[in-house]
């Protein structure tokens, strides 16, 4: 027989085992030092602190993101070469890391992407967070969108980002669900649980989408290069209200398209 306390403890440890909480550092804002020190970010998107005045590789790099995806110049990626394993989430954290809003600290089965390494063997990287930009960062043959989402996979060394434009559509998509509590986190360091999110629906989207791959950088300081970007030509969606609410919180957190030099399809960075 177990005492009531022992039973309660067993129940808690079983829940913890099931939850399998994945907590990994996010790359973009923490690399800039603000989350670690609880300070305001060292960069911004206003004219006074414009994206083109950012430090280090942001200013000196030759393969900076975002870019205009020129479909005539960048090869179509063969979707068969990428395995996206994003099981549905039980819960996650919607966090305001001003100037970014992230979905992170996933509860559920591990999520990852597998693809052939550019050099040899296979690359398997966990999905550690996804985040939003309003409006778009990349353009596709010059086309714009009111919002863009970046799914960041990394082992802290190699980085693979799946990105897509997001357009307005009626109804409730998995991104609407992920952002349902956005009004409750208007300021930095605020967060809310998301509840379940159908990640598998978004995995299906990327499995079918025409994808363009190029080698770029993080789009926030320190703008580290060697990031493998896959940008979908088709769009994900949110409803009008979600876009309005997210835009109120993020305002403009989109880096302008950069003067990328070199071979779009270059494979020397990884
Ligand atoms: Zn991003």
UniProtKB/TrEMBL annotation:
First-level EC class: lyase
Coiled coil: none
PROSITE patterns according to UniProt: ALPHA_CA_2
SMART domains membership: Carb_anhydrase
Enzymatic reactions: hydrogencarbonate + H(+) = CO2 + H2O
EC number(s) given by UniProt: 4.2.1.1
Keywords: Lyase, Metal-binding, Signal, Zinc
Presence of the UniProt keyword Ion transport in the record: no
Keyword Signal in annotation: yes
Domain Alpha-carbonic anhydrase: 41-270
A Pfam short name: Carb_anhydrase
Annotated InterPro entries: Alpha_CA_prokaryot-like, CA_dom, CA_dom_sf, Carbonic_anhydrase_a-class
Signal peptide positions on this chain: 1-19
Gene Ontology molecular function: carbonate dehydratase activity; zinc ion binding
Entry similarity comment: Belongs to the alpha-carbonic anhydrase family.
Protein name (database record): carbonic anhydrase
Annotated organism of origin: Moelleriella libera RCEF 2490
